[in-house]
Amino acid sequence: DIQMTQSPSTLSASVGDRVTITCRASESIDTWLAWYQQKPGKAPKFLIYKASSLGSGVPSRFSGSGSGTEFTLTISSLQPDDFATYYCQQYSSYWTFGQGTKVEIK
Amino acid sequence: EVQLVESGGGLVEPGGSLRLSCATSGFFFSTSEMTWVRQAPGRGLEWVSYISTSGDTTYYADSVKGRFAISRDNANNSLDLQMNSLRAEDTALYYCVRDVSGVLDSWGQGVLVTVSS
Description:
The complex is a heterodimer of chains A (106) and B (117).
Chain A: E1 4-7, E2 10-13, E3 19-25, E4 33-38, E5 45-49, E6 53-54, E7 62-67, E8 70-75, E9 85-90, E10 96-97, E11 101-105
Parallel strand pairs in A: 2-11
Antiparallel strand pairs in A: 1-3, 3-8, 4-5, 4-9, 5-6, 7-8, 9-10, 9-11
Chain B: E1 3-7, E2 10-12, E3 18-25, E4 33-39, E5 45-51, E6 58-60, E7 68-73, E8 78-83, E9 92-100, E10 103-107, E11 111-115
Parallel strand pairs in B: 2-11
Antiparallel strand pairs in B: 1-3, 3-8, 4-5, 4-9, 5-6, 7-8, 9-10, 9-11
């Protein structure tokens, strides 16, 4: 089974900060990686697919990069609406999520 | 607008059974792959099961294999998850999710399953 590991688990940041979350796969998944955002009490929302392609309606301040086993999600200028938990997910072989990264207010 | 509405959750004793349903609208259900994803209280996301458009192909997480069964009714645009031999560790919010070639692009609001005596 492919394992996904995110870092950090928690990230404290301020509005306007550039934020980067890392996701590592236990084996190569090419670019079969998606990112999701989840706010408390809400269902996850799809952000990025194929490692770097933005979903429809997702603000351009979100971007993704990487291939193989190492990936990043970057928020170029953190907005109040972006404080949430972010999950990566591989879909190269079945489906596996990272453990999540909580972005909290500094 | 894509809508996915889960139902059928509740409190069940260990060893019991429960059947979750997901009513869908706003998209072509019969040509959409579907999955169930769960989230234990205060925990992360866990993929549970997948079903192909025709229902011929299904996959399960090791944690539920042999106990859960996914099915679909394309005539009624609905998805089901039959859960048997439930355990305390199955307690979670269960999400019905549309799967687009592995990307989980649309999620229901979730239905809570609590396994406790």
